[in-house]
């Protein structure tokens, strides 16, 4: 049973103020990205994991090959019409709570490729938390996006169903 | 060498040698050239000449085979024209194995049917895709970009335009 | 029948040598070691591979169609993005094709700068290949070492063009901008240090027993098969055929450089690895020569119809303003006709075939990508190997899926 279900089962009887902060802190500092490389941006995503930039400083060096072990999907590159259903499947396989970073212009809006083959923005199929501009963005931009996401996760704490 | 009765036209454009041959005898031409030493099919593609006013073309689709003799090295471009209604040409996948995927791609993108191909299915687009994207009458697609020229046209009501 | 979104694949129901039915395994398109979104349908008899059907198109971007909708000078930006590990080489193929059709010859300084960028890109492409392949076959530290040097190349790219990966540096008519003194300094330092780094990689891999066990004798591709299947680049040279476009059909003044064509007679994954290591050493050699001979002079053709006038002229010359306006609203036209140019990228023959109908937009642009053709040799290489060797074989084929699907 996850924390969210536990809190829901308690109903309105217990207030979870400090617990929410602790859980948010824990989640925010151990975001595990899925190893989901698509195109050019994937190379910059690899660069983030290597020595110069070292995403491990932010607790996200564990790129999981299985979506079942990941809680962040970095959509790194252009998503074609053929790839879109697979991307959604991978997203659905990730356990809750999960977040999505749309890395680069192609993933965010279709970028320079405004044509028949590409999905014009990955937010048409999955909810996106942070968009990164650039084609491809600098690795530092990805780190910045991760920090923005961490702030949000920490502020959110326990995600209660409304 | 290609027999003289097979050559419809030949010439040199931008230092590239080319020869035009009849489409129905393409297998004969290519196997002859292969025996001559042109053993590498560099690429195979199609050009859609729909409404091209710059030059005269006998038919809508031009199939281009670029061959190379790696020993000399020299290249030759074999061109052939086929009509637009139900474009159809013989497959050369058994003469040049790399042609297998190239023909599938040309089928996918232009709808050219290669008779005798072992598995002529779509290769780049999804199987259920309708249309052949690289034909000139297929729109580029995508979405209207705000504040662009197209956006202006898109916003104007048809009776005012 | 195995159903998956967009693609239909049929199961064969064939009997294997060990009595059981052939097992069909799906591999990808999201898989950590396929170098992108490659999908393979593999038929296994026990653990032996009996059939491989690559399913591609998951990264189809419509680049060729997009280029028909862009003007000639805008197309350069799109060429960067198909083979995303060697953008300047893609630019070069396109630029040479346009120049060939227009009959334009670029100045000597631009030629040398083009060679410098091509060789830097070849190095960075091989570094990414070696890092990721090492990672897949259990040499995790390779990734860290290779990307350390790749970052230096990215800094060089940034210094000369302002951008890390997709430089759009090489354009029809010349290059984007002249090199800065700082770039030449950085390049000089890089060229001095790089041979030592290549020794480091060799220390880590060449005699490494795990690496050797995973690559020697795996993915054999005899020379005759490689030729018949149309393989190019390290795939062909790893099979003992000394074919390099830079030597055989030189472009951009490669005939003036002194370098060897890397060949290995091993015909297996290890041979292809040795070819790439040797190519990196040769690339450093070419860079050194290019740096020593870099001539002075302009880096663009002196044609106001093709390239914009210098910024300072715009303030004083009405004609310059007209040229500038015409160029960026209408673009230039290319004479009707077609041309094909092939250049040697890190993966093999990277060609560009352009057809012009005499207007300011291309009628057709076709990229002859090395990965697309090389990938067809995958089945030949993987046949009768264990399923785990598939990783080594895909790795050393070094296909970039952006290049395959375009």
Topology:
The complex is a heterotrimer of chains A (162), B (161) and C (406).
Chain A: H1 3-10, H2 17-28, E1 33-34, H3 40-49, E2 72-76, H4 84-93, E3 99-103, H5 104-109, E4 130-132, H6 139-156
Parallel strand pairs in A: 1-2, 2-3, 3-4
Helix pairs in contact in A: 2-6, 3-6
Chain B: E1 9-13, E2 16-20, H1 26-35, E3 40-48, E4 61-69, E5 74-82, E6 88-90, H2 99-110, E7 113-115, H3 149-155
Parallel strand pairs in B: 2-5, 6-7
Antiparallel strand pairs in B: 1-2, 3-4, 4-5
Chain C: E1 2-4, E2 7-9, E3 23-27, E4 39-45, E5 48-55, H1 63-68, H2 75-79, H3 87-102, H4 108-136, H5 140-161, E6 170-171, E7 174-175, H6 181-205, H7 209-215, H8 223-228, H9 234-237, H10 245-248, H11 269-293, H12 311-314, H13 318-329, E8 337-344, E9 349-356, E10 362-368, H14 370-374, H15 378-382, H16 389-397, H17 401-405
Antiparallel strand pairs in C: 1-2, 3-4, 4-5, 6-7, 8-9, 9-10
CATH topology name of chain A, in short, is Rossmann fold
By DSSP (H or I, 4+ residues per run), the number of helices of chain A equals: 6
How would you characterize the largest beta sheet of chain A?
Answer: 4 strands, parallel
Mean pLDDT of chain C: 87
Provide the gyration radius of chain A in Å: 17 Å
Describe the structure.
The complex is a heterotrimer of chains A (162), B (161) and C (406). Chain A has helices at 3-10, 17-28, 40-49, 84-93, 104-109, 139-156; strands at residues 33-34, 72-76, 99-103, 130-132. Chain A is an alpha/beta fold and 162 residues long. Chain A has one domain: Rossmann fold, CATH 3.40.50.12280. In chain A, strands 1-2-3-4 form a 4-stranded parallel β-sheet. Chain A is globular and about 55 Å long. Chain B has 161 residues and is α/β, with parallel strands linked by helices. Chain B has one domain (4-130): NADH:ubiquinone oxidoreductase Nqo5 subunit (Beta Polymerase, domain 2). Chain B contains 3 helices and 7 strands, in the order E-E-H-E-E-E-E-H-E-H. The termini of chain B are far apart. The model of chain B has no long low-confidence stretch (mean pLDDT 84). Residues 1-8 of chain C have low confidence and may be disordered. Chain C folds into 2 domains: 2-55, no CATH class; 73-303 and 331-405, Cytochrome-c3 Hydrogenase, chain B (Orthogonal Bundle), CATH 1.10.645. In chain C, 47% of the residues lie in helices and 13% in strands. A 3-stranded antiparallel β-sheet of chain C has the order 3-4-5. Chain C has a 3-stranded antiparallel β-sheet with strand order 8-9-10. By secondary structure, chain C is α+β, with helices and mostly antiparallel strands. The chains are: A alpha/beta (162), B alpha/beta (161), C alpha+beta (406). Chains in contact: A-B, A-C, B-C. Chain A binds chain B through residues 81-82, 110, 113-118, 120, and chain B through 125-126, 129, 133, 138-143, 145.
């Amino acid at each position: 049973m996850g924390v969210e279900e536990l809190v829901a089962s308690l109903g309105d009887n217990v207030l979870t103020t400090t617990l929410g902060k602790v859980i948010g802190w824990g989640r925010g500092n151990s975001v595990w990205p899925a190893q989901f490389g698509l195109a050019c941006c994937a190379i910059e995503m690899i660069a983030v994991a290597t020595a110069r930039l070292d995403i491990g400083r932010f607790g996200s060096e564990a790129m999981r090959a299985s979506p079942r072990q990941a809680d962040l999907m970095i959509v790194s590159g252009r998503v074609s019409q053929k790839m879109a259903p697979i991307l959604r499947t991978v997203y659905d396989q990730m356990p809750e709570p999960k977040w999505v970073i749309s890395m680069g212009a192609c993933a965010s809006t279709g970028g320079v490729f405004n044509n028949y083959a590409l999905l014009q923005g990955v937010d048409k199929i999955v909810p996106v938390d942070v968009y990164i501009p650039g084609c491809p963005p600098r690795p530092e931009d990805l780190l910045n996006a991760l920090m923005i996401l961490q702030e949000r996760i920490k502020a959110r704490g326990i995600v209660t169903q409304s | 060498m290609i027999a003289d009765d097979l050559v419809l036209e030949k010439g040199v454009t931008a230092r590239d040698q080319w020869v035009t041959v009849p489409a129905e005898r393409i297998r004969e031409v290519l196997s002859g050239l292969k025996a001559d030493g042109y053993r590498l099919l560099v690429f195979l593609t199609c050009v859609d000449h729909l409404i091209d006013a710059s030059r005269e073309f006998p038919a809508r689709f031009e199939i281009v085979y670029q061959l190379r003799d790696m020993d000399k090295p020299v290249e030759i471009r074999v061109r052939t024209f086929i009509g637009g209604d139900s474009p159809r040409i013989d497959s050369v996948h058994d003469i040049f194995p790399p042609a297998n995927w190239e023909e599938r791609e040309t089928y996918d993108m232009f709808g050219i049917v290669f008779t005798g191909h072992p598995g002529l299915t779509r290769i780049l687009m999804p199987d259920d895709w309708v249309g052949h994207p690289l034909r000139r009458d297929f729109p580029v697609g995508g979405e209207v970009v705000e504040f662009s020229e197209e956006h202006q046209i898109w916003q104007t009501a048809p009776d005012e335009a | 029948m195995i159903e998956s979104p967009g693609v239909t694949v049929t199961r064969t129901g064939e009997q294997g040598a060990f009595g059981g039915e052939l097992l069909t395994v799906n591999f990808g398109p999201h898989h950590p070691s396929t170098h992108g979104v490659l999908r393979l349908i593999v038929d296994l008899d026990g653990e032996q591979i009996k059939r491989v059907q690559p399913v591609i198109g998951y990264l189809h971007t419509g680049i060729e169609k997009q280029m028909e909708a862009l003007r000639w000078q805008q197309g350069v930006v799109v060429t960067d993005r198909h083979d995303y590990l060697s953008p300047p080489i893609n630019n070069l193929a396109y630029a040479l094709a346009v120049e060939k059709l227009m009959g334009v010859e670029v100045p000597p300084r631009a030629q040398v700068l083009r060679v410098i960028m091509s060789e830097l890109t070849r190095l960075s492409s091989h570094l990414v290949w070696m890092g990721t392949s090492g990672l897949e076959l259990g040499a995790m530290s390779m990734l860290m070492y290779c990307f350390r040097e790749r970052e230096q190349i990215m800094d060089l790219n940034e210094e000369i063009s302002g951008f890390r990966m997709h430089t759009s540096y090489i354009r029809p008519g010349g290059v984007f901008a002249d090199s800065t003194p700082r770039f030449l300094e950085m390049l000089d330092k890089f060229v001095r240090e790089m041979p030592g780094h290549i020794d480091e990689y060799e220390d880590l891999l060449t005699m490494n027993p795990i690496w050797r066990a995973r690559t020697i004798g795996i993915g054999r591709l005899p020379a005759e098969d490689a030729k018949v299947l149309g393989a190019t680049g390290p795939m062909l040279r790893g099979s003992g055929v000394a074919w390099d476009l830079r030597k055989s059909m030189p472009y951009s003044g490669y005939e003036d450089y002194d370098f060897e064509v890397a060949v290995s007679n091993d015909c297996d994954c290890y041979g292809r690895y040795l070819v790439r290591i040797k190519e990196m050493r040769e690339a450093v050699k070419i860079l050194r020569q290019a740096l020593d001979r870099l001539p002075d002079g302009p880096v663009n053709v002196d044609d106001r119809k093709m390239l914009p006038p210098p910024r300072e002229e715009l303030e004083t010359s009405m004609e310059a303003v007209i040229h500038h306006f015409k160029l960026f609203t209408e673009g230039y036209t290319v004479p009707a006709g077609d041309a094909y140019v092939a250049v040697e990228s890190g993966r093999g023959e990277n060609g560009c075939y352009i057809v012009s109908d005499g207007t300011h937009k291309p009628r057709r642009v076709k990229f002859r990508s090395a990965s697309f053709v090389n990938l067809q040799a995958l089945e030949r290489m993987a046949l009768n190997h264990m399923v785990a060797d598939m990783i080594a074989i895909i790795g050393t084929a070094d296909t970039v899926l952006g290049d395959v699907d375009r």
